[in-house]
Amino acid sequence: MAHKLETNGKIENELRIDKPPQDPGICQIIAGTGDEHDLIVACGKINARYGDAVGLFDHLHSMLTVDMSEVPNIRSLFDQLLDEQLKSAPGYELIIASLMTQIIVHMFRLLEEESQDSLPWLSALQDARLARAMDSIFENPGANHSVESLAEEAGMSRSAFAEHFSAAFSRSPINFVNHVRMERAGKMLDKGTSSIDQVANHVGFASRSHFSQAFKKHTGQSPAEYRVQ
């Protein structure tokens, strides 16, 4: 996402970042002309998911800002992360992933103590009722799921379940079911061990043509094109 950092004071050479750098490893972009570092910013892409189809940051409408300065050893975690990235020693990706996981957990703990307006799913995923419905979808995406059946799984009325689910995940329950089906189909096509007919059947489509239409609408490619790519 394009962004830029600005200061309250007058500093020359402030830069707008329009896209991620193409260079491997760390890429330094320096604003200003002095030798002193007043601020160091590390940018990266975090793939945090619930199950295999819910990107936990997919529906952010504004930036999350979390002050972690009071978290014990947080500075050490960031220092280790940047050090591993700079060294690029064998296995550094695994160490960075471990460090980022720790940092994200600390972040979620702090967010849980604050307002949930920006991340309504955070409290929703702690709701055992919605979690039961979500797990049912993930365990068997090809089942004949409906708002009624998912509400029954959650132990809620149809209207209450639909309202809570849509508020938490910015999509209707059935739209979410279709999303999970297409994501699961994509993973199966990537593996290449199942025919397109078998993939369609696994994710709840009796008709290959109906599945192909839905998959192309989701990915922009037919199942055959997706598999070749």
Q: What is the structure about, briefly put?
A:
The protein has 229 residues and is mostly helical. Helices cover 51% and strands 3% of the residues. The strands form two sheets. Strands 1-2 form a two-stranded antiparallel ribbon. It has a two-stranded antiparallel sheet with strand order 3-4.
Q: What would you note in describing this structure?
A:
- The protein is mainly α and 229 residues long.
- The chain has two domains: 3-45 and 65-117, no CATH class; 122-228, Orthogonal Bundle (Arc Repressor Mutant, subunit A), CATH 1.10.10.
- The protein has helices at 74-87, 92-113, 120-124, 128-139, 147-154, 158-169, 173-191, 196-202, 208-219, 223-228; strands spanning 3-4, 16-17, 49-50, 54-55.
- The strands form two sheets. A two-stranded antiparallel ribbon has the order 1-2. Strands 3-4 form a two-stranded antiparallel ribbon.
- Helix 5 (147-154) crosses helix 6 (158-169).
- The protein is globular and about 65 Å long.
| CATH architecture title of the largest domain | Orthogonal Bundle
Radius of gyration: 22 Å
Helix content: 40-55%
Estimate the mean pLDDT confidence: 80
The shape is globular
CATH superfamily of the largest domain: Homeodomain-like
* Largest sheet properties: 2 strands, antiparallel
Q: Write the H/E string, N to C.
A: EEEEHHHHHHHHHH
Beta-strand fraction estimate: under 5%
What is the count of β-strands?
Answer: 4
CATH class of the largest domain: Mainly Alpha
